[in-house]
Structures are given as C-alpha cells and as structure tokens.
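Lab notebook page, bench 4
Experiment: in silico fold of construct C2
Operator: M.H.
Input chain length: 347 residues
Purpose: comparison with the prior construct
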Amino acid sequence: MPVAIFGDRSCGKTIFLSLLYESQVRLTNSEDNVGAGEFRFTTDPSFTSIFGNHRTNLSKGQWADATLKGNMSKYKFKYGYRRLLSLGSEASSRFDIMDFTVYDIAGEDLDILRSLEQYRESISTGTYKGEFNFESLSSSFQELLKCNVLVFLIDLSKINAEARSERFIEMRNYDVFMATLISAVSKYKSMVYDKDEDKAKIYPVFVLTKFDLLDKEIIKMNGWPDSFEGLTSEKRGLRGIFKDKEFTKEDYAKTILMKYYKDTMALSKGAAIANVSFDKSAYFFSEIRTEQNEDGEIIPRLISVKGSHELDYSYTEYRAFIERFREIARKMPDEVKEEQEFRGVKG
C-alpha cells in the first residue's frame, strides 16, 4: 500500500520518516506488544541501514539530511498486524500482512505549484487559461498523485500573528502553497474518479509537525493547551449524537489549521465538490524535544527509560499513526493496493 508524503521544504519530512522508523522499533519491542506480538515489521537491509543510521545520528545529536532536489526516495516496510479471528484458508496465517511503501520527494520538486507561468495564455497580456498542466510536474510528483493514502505534513513553526511582518507573509505564502497542493491532488483524483471510483478514493492524514517550535505566545494568546498529550484522539459516535464534548486532538489540530492555515482547510473541504473527500482525515502531531549542547547548538534530547537512553519525542502519536494504517488497509480494495506499486521507481 503506497503512501505519499507531501510537504514543503524543511517541513520535517526526513525527521518524520526517521521517527516513524524509531517508533516501529520501539512498538515492536514494547512490553505490551512483545507477549502478544500485535505488531511486527520488517524491511529490506538497505532501508534498515538507512534508517538505523538516522536513528543513531539523532541519538548522537545530529539531524538527518534533507532530501535532495530531483530525488524521489522509496522506502518499503512490511507490517504485520495480528489477526483477531482467522477463518477458512486464512487460518494458516497469524498476521494480516501489509506492504507499507513510502514515497518521499524533495520540497523543491513541488516548486512548479508556486509558478503561475504555466497558467498564462499570454505572458505579455497576463491573461490566464485557467488549466493546470499535470505534464509540467516532475515524474516523481506525478507518481505521488497516484497514491490513495496521502500524508500531508503541516509545519507549525511558520505560524505567526504579527500582521504584515516578514514571518507573517511567509506563513501566508506557505498556506497558499499547501492549499494549491491540495487543490492539485483534488483535481487529479477528480479526473481519476470518472474512470474508477475506487482508485480515486483517498485516505488523507494530516501530521502537524514541529509542535515544539509553535510559538508559546501563540498558544497563550489563543488559550490553547500547552500540549496535545492528554487529549483524546478524536470524537466518536454516530453523526455526532454520542460524541464527547471534550476538546480532542482532532479539535486542536483543526482549530490551529482553521485559524492560521485557512486556505489549506478551505480547499480540503471544497474537494468534496470534485468527488474527493478530506472529511474523514486523521490528524496527528509530531514533536521532538530538544536541548542545547556545549556549543549552544539545538540538538534532539535524550531521556533515560529504565536504564536505557531514548529519543524524547511524541511516540504515542506515531504509535497511533501506525495503528491508523491497520484501519486503512482493511478498507482499501486489494486490487487498488497492488496496482499502486510503482515498480519503475528505484529506491
């Protein structure tokens, strides 16, 4: 089941993938998982080496390198979720097996979305033809658009409330970029919808990255919780009848986006008009706590857990993220999952 990771430059894609691997290792070896073996994963030796080294470097206080422009990285994991019930021919297998393939491209490869030149009918007159040319996108970007499972990384460090400041304009430009990205996904999937409804379905996930860099004054000014930890994941219930009234992580994420990334939220809602629904999106937070080293550099923080040292980050969020894909795998038709393996792409 291919998973596309979308995000702008320096939004935290490489760190996100590194922490995802860290979480897979930690979840597999956790005390509540070891006995039952509810979750297991494996991968190719090359990927084990890449992410194992990322994990080591973060522990040493070194940040992962960014994805280089023009490159599309393909990472494959095989997930195993223990079956609750086995019937018939499936009884011989102890796990629901899922190929979890992640495609990651550099933020620079999405820069075509910032350019309006391709929309212009005439540069001299400035008139617009109003049609997006998908052939102008890089081949890597076009491959990502074929995925049904879409993960959008939203950078919280860009949020700023000081009107007309440079950082405020930067935030606005970022919002427009993410909205354009969602609009491109919506248009592409709407064209696919006319041919095959199943292949047009999307399973969107929003990950709000760099919560640790969200301005504390912004949090205080809005009366928001200092942390997302302790909040329930999402509201449950039939059409809202029995939903909890408490403030949830889903509420928190949507509140942040609707206040500071309004274009992004509006375009995701508007996608329903094109038969592309973001209405059942999942929301997660990503946070890696930091400290200063002797040279005054900001580095990942380590904490002592039962005699060993581990990265201090939002592990429970990543654990819930992994669990989310158990739900998605059960919903997506097998033939769609199989057809989306892009065998021409080199890892």
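Observations: The chain has a mean pLDDT of 83. Residues 2-339 form one domain.
Next step: discuss at group meeting.
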